[in-house]
Amino acid sequence: MDAPRILLTNDDGIDSVGFRALYEGLSTVGDVVAVAPADDQSAVGRTHSESVELVDHEFGYAVRGTPVDCVIAGLGSLCPDVDLVVSGCNKGANLGAYVLGRSGTVSAAVEAAFFGVPAISVSLYIEGGDDWASLATETTDFATARDATTYLVERATTDDVFDAADYLNVNVPFGDNPGVDGPLSMRVTRPSTRYEMNAERDPNGDITLTDGIWEQMRGDSVDDPVGTDRRAVADGEISVSPLTAPHSTERHDRLDEIAAGYMEGSEVDAE
């Protein structure tokens, strides 16, 4: 296969350091066209717009819209001949099944899959703490994510990986990893199904929504089982989850019976 043509997008915005890191890395192995949000669009999920404004950018196109807008605009008009969509690198992990639909980063990959184009979403896992915002501010901080993504682009697109998976959700640990000497290992994972969203109402009647998972995202407190994405990054491994985009369906005999009985019930009511 010739060098792939890659549509690169994200949800942190086209000027984010994680985006620049991937653009520079992927440009060494492919022809990269940037179609990314002009500003931060984190956690917008698969929200899309009716029309978007394009702004010229040194990397390609900045879009005044969401990550999904960028993928639709790119694959539908700007660069429909790309071989692959890469979304990232997001500052902050996208781990667990319940996060997949909320993440703008992952949603861009999902949208690409509906176009029939393979995709990779990439995020940098940073342990929680008060200094979170001050971390990962340079492109060099995303070097491991850049290298892992480049590796996957070079190999997954030529080794039939996307015959079975629509997209790969990749999460890469940030910073020093105790007990890890040299390059991080890469583990194929499944999204954790753990869910700890909660809601509390205060005396004023307002409700605060909290995600209890992130309070437990330090390596020594994660008790998700081996094989899950959250366990892998907590152990200092690069997590790669092969996923499919369409919602799966499973037929159940009892539901078939209920559906078949709907008209029967209607006929009785009509008598």
How does this structure look, described?
- The chain has six helices and eleven strands.
- It has a single domain, classed as Survival protein SurE-like phosphatase/nucleotidase (Stationary-phase Survival Protein Sure Homolog, Chain: A, 3-Layer(aba) Sandwich), CATH 3.40.1210.10.
- Strands 3-4-2-1-5-6-7-11-8 form a nine-stranded mixed β-sheet, with helices on both faces. A two-stranded antiparallel sheet has the order 9-10.
- Helix 1 crosses helix 4 and helix 2 packs parallel to helix 3.
- The protein is an alpha/beta fold and 271 residues long.
- 40% of the residues are buried.
- The protein starts with a strand and ends with a helix.
- It is globular, with a radius of gyration of 21 Å.
- InterPro entries: SurE, SurE-like_Pase/nucleotidase, SurE-like_sf.
- It catalyses: a ribonucleoside 5'-phosphate + H2O = a ribonucleoside + phosphate.
- Nucleotidase that shows phosphatase activity on nucleoside 5'-monophosphates.
- GO terms for molecular function: 5'-nucleotidase activity; metal ion binding; nucleotide binding.
- Keywords: Cytoplasm, Hydrolase, Metal-binding, Nucleotide-binding.
